[in-house]
Amino acid sequence: MINPYDPSSAPDSDGDRAAEFMELLAARQGQIFGYIFAIISNATDAQDVYQQTVMALWRKFDEFEKDSNFTAWALKVAYYEVQMYRRANSRSKLLFSDDLVAMLSDSQLEATAGLEESGDRLANLQHCLSKLKGADRELVRMSYEERTPVLEMAKLLKRSSQSICNSLRRIRMALLKCVDSQQARNGA
Known about the structure:
The chain is mainly alpha-helical. It has helices spanning 15-40, 43-59, 70-88, 98-130, 134-145, 150-157, 161-185.
């Protein structure tokens, strides 16, 4: 039997492929389980379906296109595993209707896509912040990390409050432009 947690059990004995699978899965296991639990709403059953999903993902991993969206692919596989669970437990009165499950599934996929996009934008913002001059980075830190009021910043830096506001506006515009540029460069 293939064990996705044991790289030596890979069908083609390619430990790199197993390591790649485990890295992708580890980064998204919470999202996958959350998706399943949102539909099934019973922790024990959701855990069983999650385990079945992991096994199905491993069996089908050769079908996964390397540069495509692993989360979307994994959630699609999870959707089919949830459907198999629902069919096997169709006599239970606690199951949602098929329409509701489809709606929950679509909603969860949209939320996941939004989280990934937010993560990309955050990484791009961190890159852009690192490119700022030291004084500008300090203004951003004071304003956003420490939540220092503009008047207090003006006193500390011996500048007018209008000067601080103008600098923060300029920095925000530069960061927005930089993040958008990074997003376009990365194809997001």
